[in-house]
Amino acid sequence: MSAEIKRLIEENVDRILDQYCSAEYAEEWNLVGLKEEISRLFLLNLDFKKEELPALSRDRLQELIIGAAGQIYGHREQIYGADIMRRLERYAFLSVIDERWKDHLYEIDQIKTGIGLRAYGQRDPLIEYKKETFDAFEKILNQIDREVVEFVFKVRLQQADETSNKRPAEKQMVAVHDSAVNMGYTGMGEAAKPQSRPKPVKVEEKIGRNDPCPCGSGKKYKKCCGAKS
């Protein structure tokens, strides 16, 4: 899992640089878009000095970003431990693939529904179907690669309150949608070191009125603890 995540980090960085840094000279790059995208994906705040741009190559920039992202990834593994990180990564792959595959199947159904209309435009529906479904599959693969990395970099693990009588104590995975500045990661290379981290937000599970009461009484929630609220 760890090797796969590192491969996805490199591929996502390469894809982002193709999008924002395709020009030959650094002065022509879309650095604003690049910073926003790197911050959104890795919670990494890039800091460029204007005088450094003329000497900055795409390969060097790619090396710096991958190195900084790798430091953040390594720091997370130090915090949670290798075993927890591998479980988190497996969960990221399974949950993202499951969700996006359902979206993909829906999109294929939509393509099937309208593919016959291509014949009116003097185009072979079978060829058009193969092309559109291949493009859809490529798009969904890229989306999965991105969302898995984003999941691994943004999700926090939190120990549930052991004194709570509402739910058992267990490790909860909580998504954190913070900016790179708030997360405390800034710069590139050795500068990408964590500072202070905000407290994760705990997501409480909503209990239905007809669900069994979590207190263990065997009654429905609406006739037990729910009746008191």
Structural class: mainly alpha
Cα-atom radius of gyration = 23 Å
Beta-strand content bin = under 5%
Q: Number of helical runs?
A: 6
Number of DSSP E strands: 2
Taken from the alpha-carbon principal axes, the silhouette is: flat
- Unreliable spans are 159-205
Q: What spatial order of strands do you see in the largest sheet?
A: 1-2
The profile of the biggest β sheet is: 2 strands, antiparallel
Fold blueprint:
Layout: H1 2-20, H2 31-42, H3 58-80, H4 82-114, H5 125-154, E1 155-159, E2 171-175, H6 180-183
Helix pairs in contact: 1-2, 1-3, 1-5, 3-4, 4-5
Explain what this protein looks like in three dimensions:
Residues 159-205 have low confidence and may be disordered. It is built from 6 helices and 2 strands, in the order H-H-H-H-H-E-E-H. The chain is mainly alpha-helical and 229 residues long. The chain has a two-stranded antiparallel ribbon with strand order 1-2. The relative contact order is 0.12. Helices cover 53% and strands 4% of the residues.
Short précis:
The chain is mainly alpha-helical and 229 residues long.
Question: Key terms for this structure?
Answer:
2 strands, 6 helices, mainly alpha, two-stranded antiparallel sheet
